[in-house]
Fold each of these.
Amino acid sequence: MGVVAANVPWLIASHANFGSVLINLFVVTPLAALFGTMIRVMEREAIRRREVNSELVAMAAENARLSREAGVAEERARLAREIHDTVAQGLTGIVTQLEAIGELPEEQARRLGQAQELARTSLAEVRRSIDALRPGPLQDQRLADAVRETVSNWSERHDVPASFTMTGTPLPVHSEVEVTLLRAAQEALANVGKHARAKRADVTLSYMEDIIVLDVRDDGIGFEPRPGAGFGLVALRERVAALAGSVAVESAPGHGTTVNVTLPAIEVA
């Protein structure tokens, strides 16, 4: 109707004959309106198809992500089984055989004791690796229990008093976050045992609103922190950075060391 109304003044002013007026009003004008409507419909259809395509692309990306996660979980489970059935079983056999050896001269007995301790330590590390590889997120207290067990085993192995404290309410977060925190506790305590000559160590796991913080403190000899220096934390820094977290090391000669690991509380999907 808008097209017709727009043409009427022109037709009157141009004194067009009646036949031309009828053709213009009842043939040309409806065709023009029809073409306009078709163009608008085609534009809407094109927009709808773009939206559908965008949704399909997003769905494909999500399916690919889920497929990758399923593949990673399956591969981790397979590796855990392989390690358990080969390395862990072999180390268990070595420990058993070493413990079965009878009386030996003092020097040989000392070396045997060192071999037994090394085999037990390696077996404990392998078992922790198997635990870290298991699929699915840790739930509720399981991360805290794993860190507490790590602290207890480390204290017993190194004959150094160590405490574990948890604050806040445990959150069901992504397994990578929890495994990384457990690895951080293991790595930091391993460094305390190797380098610190500490008389005490304290580990704190803190659940906050949107982050989880792990602190490992010792009263050892300390050192002068330098960027890129060893301390066995290079791989840990990379792993934490991949999860948008941070690692901070505070130390000074004669004043002990504190390792702080902060990770976002990425929730389970």
Note: The chain has six helices and five strands.
Amino acid sequence: MDMQLPLLDRLFAAGLLIDTGVDGLYGRSGAFEDVITRFEAVIDGLGGVDKPETIRFPPGMNRAHFEGSGYMKSFPQLAGTIHSFCGCELDHVSLLTCMEEGKDWTGQQQATDIVLTPAACYPLYPTIAKRGALPVGGGLFDLQSYCFRHEPSKEPTRMQLFRMREYVRMGKPTDVVAFRQDWMERGTKLMESVGLPVEIDVANDPFFGRAGKMYKNNQRNQNLKFELLIPVNANAGPTACMSFNYHQDHFGKTWGLTTDDGETAHTACVGFGLERIALALFKHHGLDVNEWPAHVRKTLWG
């Protein structure tokens, strides 16, 4: 296969990704999915020893919880909502007429009580807060969900719908910070075990607007976010395939999360971009998994 072609075109040609006609929205082949399944099993082997509580939320979340999270204050450009037709028969006729005439019919859709999940951990915080105070020692949770972010791109690593695997730690600041540091070390060793070159660097989220510049600077200055970076896209900087985030007491205050002694809980999370990691593996080891290095195949397939 022509290695001069962009990675996305080579993935399409190999049938690993399936073009839907929308940038950042792709089907996945069985071979692509198998790589993700095998990699998640490796994650399970590392994180399962800590005995987290496993929760799987759907890719949509309660709109009221989304609004309460403050996400729209920081990332309105990334958010996605779910709208549906809620009209009568006459409205339906009008809608069909608009479609037949090639006009915009979406104005007749109304917002539902569901928004697309922006990060796997967002539904978790109000859910745990409803239980009351955290147990002694805090909480640890294992999450995985499809997430949505509206940033269409021809870079295969920047999908609009993608899966995020997360471990979330809640509790006292010292415990939460130690959890994040431990996973920065685990994550580096994990990626090295599958033959991927990595570097970890301080980072920031894509905060919106003028105020966002201040948030970005504060996040970097306080070392609240680190990313594990792997080269994937040609002629571009390395791609963030894992993130290590310390939220301080933000979600604790937002949702009333408390420790067993009544203090506001701090939270941190480690996130795996599953599609990005699969893409990194295909980029560095080739598009045929049968030809991957023996040690990588042993790690993933045993």
Note: Residues 7-62+118-301 form a domain with the BirA Bifunctional Protein; domain 2 fold (CATH 3.30.930.10).
Amino acid sequence: MTEPAARSGLRTLMGGNRDYRRLLLAALISQTGDWAISTALAFHVYRLTGSTLSTAIMLLVSRLPDVMLGSVAGTLADRWDRRRLLIATDLLLALGLLPLLLVRDPSHLWIVYAAALWTGILSTLLVPAQKALVPQIVAESELVRANALLGQSGQLARLVGAMLGGVAVAAGGLPAVVLIDAATFLTSAALQLTLRVTARPAPMATTMGRQWAAGLRLAAENAGVRLLIVYMAITGLGEGIFAALAAPFVADVLGGRADAYGLFLSVQAIGGIIGGLAVALHAGAARPRLLLGAGTIVFGFLDLALFTYPLVSPVLWPAYVLIALAGVPAAAAMAGFTTFAQTVTTDAHRGRVIGLLTSAQAATALAGTGLAGVLGGTIGIVPTLCVHAGGLIAAGLLVAKRHSCLNNSVI
């Protein structure tokens, strides 16, 4: 695609689609609040208890709903009006934060765990509804570009929200962050209230259990869905490994301190933002499967270089460069993945597919975290991280190999 055509496509999407603009802004605002509260809670719980176990339990409780309820959430996204589901979820998220205003000492820790579980459940409901809604307001030819920008908003929210959460909890304590996050959810709900969404056919008059079972049958029968599940299982395992070993990699392999680790994660987010913009500008017309396979392969090789270069020269600055570069193909792969998941099935089943993929990724990420704890102490940090990089390359090659094997006109 030529430069003028690429910019014209981006202008058409952003300038001509007010509903997409509002959905994008709502996602940016609510995700910024998410990062603010998660950062503040992790810091506040540790300061309150002095226990890393307490912080770990809070994070585990917040992630469990993704594993247990992802496919159920997808079924709800297909059964109910998605716009109304998003609005209701935002309002309930804001309401569920208010008990955190009562947290004063370690005896109130159960309130934090309850709030973490509540927000985890509702966030699990939100993801398939939001991703399944995008094709209802964006033309199929614009889906890659739209998904790339949504992914970029998540990275920008990570940068701004983490900083906002740290500043707010230091200045006003946990209540300040709670009120900020509640305000972001209310703002997001107000924006989504104004969305004009194309009406969907009424769902079949079947029970939710039967619809859920139909989603599982779809996964078994649809080759594209099966491929995405395998992809998510492989890459989810690697995500868990990286999450567990990123800090030890910076500290023990590169000899960095806490500030180096913070910069390492920030640069990763910046790379994702650049990648999202690059895809939106230059790869908006790319085939989702090609974008997914090629992006994942390049991402894997850059990660492999990141994890192995310290064997030659364990200095910090190449790590910042490589993880920023890796953000570009990672963003391309995510845009391709989301678009592929949205188009591999019909609108009636879209939420269930996305919910099932969310569960697969969350479950294997937890398994990867446990695997990292075992392998990191036996074969070492670098070899274990290379397992993650190798998994990315293998997953990308799998997608690329299957590219010509599946006969699907939307890809």
Note: Residues 407-411 have pLDDT under 50 and may be disordered.
